[in-house]
Amino acid sequence: MQTVLYDSSFEGFFTAVFEIYEYKIKDPDIRQQGAAPVSLFGGQHTVHTDTAKAMRVVKKLEEKLSADAFANIYRVLLSEKPGMENVLFRYIQYALQAAQSIETDYSHPDVLWIQQVVRKMGREKHRMEAFIRFQKTKDGLFYATVAPDFNVLPLIRKHFEDRYADQRWLIYDTRRKYGLYYDLHSVTEVTIDFAATLNDKASLRTLHDEQEDLYQSLWKTYFGSTNIEARRNMKLHIQHMPRRYWKYLTEKLPG
Amino acid sequence: MPSSLNQHTMSERISEKLTILSDAAKYDVSCASSGSDRKNENKGLGNASNGICHAYTEDGRCVSLLKILLTNYCIYDCAYCISRKSNDIKRAAFTVQEVVDLTMNFYRRNYIEGLFLSSGIFKNADYTMERLVLVAKKLRTEHRFNGYIHLKTIPGASDELMQEAALYADRLSVNVEMPTKESLRLLAPDKNRNDMLKPMRYIDKALTQNQEEKKVFKKAPTLAPAGQSTQMVIGATPETDLQILYMSHFFYQKIHLKRVYYSGYVPVSNDNRLPAIGTPVPFIRENRLYQADWLMRFYHFRVDEIVSPQEPLLDAQIDPKLSWALRNLQLFPVDINTADYMLIMRIPGIGIQSARKICEARKFSRLGMHHLQKIGIAVNRAKYFITTSDAPVLKDYQPMQIKEFILNEGSSKYQPNFSPQLKLF
């Protein structure tokens, strides 16, 4: 077994795939640099990300896979699941050697695994689109903080860009310490560390638009009175709104 | 008066109105915000496409839209309705601007997908409808709001107002409320069933015509892209599931409704024509009706395959698809590796997505039980109806036996309801 180290970028991953073929590396174990201790046994190969090599792999894959299946590779890489690179590499091998498209061969464990991770990513993406709650500041910025299970900000970007075209907004991932900022023209990634500001609830309040509290409280009122007590079903409620998301939901916050 | 105090009392008033007018609107179960394709092309606010549930109430229902009444003042006295004239409750009315502000501000914070606006009838049908349309018009034109709008069409309102409503709304609906005209006459003596069907038919015609127009003139405005829906109250009156499902069948086939909702009656009145306050909401029946509805809309079941004059009630213990399979055991076992897609989706324990996956995966290799398990099929249920590469023969069981097996191994979410000891709410 040989450990193949790459820089955790997409291009880096595809470069790694290229070099495994190029150097005929047997039994590769693809890992991100600095992520985990490297095996003491077997050799080690460090990949230097190379756009030209990456693009050759991408082009080849685009011939073999549908656009959806290719997008799924991207989604899996955003999942941060341990071992995802090795599954993807085996999947790519399988796709390249097959005469026909293999992307719907759900009897193959790697194809099925990818499909299942993609579904989980889809679910988390959807939850973010549902559960993000913006708060308005005095200067008209709508901001929200999240800590998704997977790195889904790149996947929700378009949704929010299309929808909230006439307001400035910021969605900040506190776990991965970066955010998306829309300035009425385009969305950019921002990496300023907002954590300190965001944790200071008192100073945040002073930044809020004067009607922010009113609308938060009206939303809580609505959430409470639209419930039908005779139909109470907390199990279903929690199944749909898992507790780990409550800290971001205005309507579930006390007070 | 100091302005801060002024503002304070104003926000209290709006909060009280919101409490009253959302409480009165919540018995309308529709919350769908899907089926439209409104895009944000004017760099305004919002779009309407797939529908998102932004929250779930403690009763487990999705909150997708701001669902409110414009007012709960009403000239009618329908026994099943909480806003009926004779009911001694607090009354309130929003102004058009208040509804617009609430919608915009909730939407901007990503609380909702849009607005579902209904109303009690004040003065007359046209007067009420006019105000509903005005809210939608303001949102669309003054605020460039492209989120979802569902408007109630008020029976008896003029055709011009209906047409205008369709121009701004994504969905329109009239609730027939009672599954038969006899029940309606009993409980809502001021209302006439034909008055309800008339606007549905009018809108249906207008939508069909609009689709034709759009084929010729691409630029023609789209009328109510998410179509129409309606709601029937279940369990307030003695109709059978057969009557209810045939009614739905009529709505889907003849008026092309997108959805029929079934609302288990929540007792809100001591009227002796209705189940008493404290009577449990018929959850199981409501759930079985939705399952039957899904079979008609997505699984290509005919209504007479689900209910019949001999068996006018759905089985409460098992779902209608399993019921159908047990009545038609001669069609089974089905060979997973060769059967037609349409038949595979009829197998208990296999949904549409799984059926599709089976048909894809079997092109690569013959499928066994372990494959099915991995794909996510309810094998415990399906195993009585299928053969696979590793289980090529099926033991012969009687329908009652299979039903027993399935009931014994699964713990139905309704189990407590079947035990003789009733759970108190």
Architecture overview:
The complex is a heterodimer of chains A (255) and B (425). Chain A is an alpha/beta fold. In chain A, 47% of the residues lie in helices and 14% in strands. Chain A contains ten helices and eight strands. Chain A has a five-stranded mixed sheet with strand order 4-5-6-7-8, with helices on one face. A three-stranded parallel sheet of chain A has the order 2-1-3. Chain A is elongated and about 65 Å long. Chain B is of the alpha/beta class. Helices cover 41% and strands 9% of the residues of chain B. Chain B has 16 helices and ten strands. Chain B has a six-stranded parallel sheet. A two-stranded antiparallel sheet of chain B has the order 1-2. In chain B, strands 9-10 form a two-stranded parallel ribbon. In chain B, helix 7 links the parallel strand 7 (228-234) and strand 8 (259-264). The chains are: A alpha/beta (255), B alpha/beta (425). Chains A and B meet through helix 5, strand 4, helix 9 and helix 10 of A and helix 1, strand 1, strand 2, helix 2 and helix 12 of B.
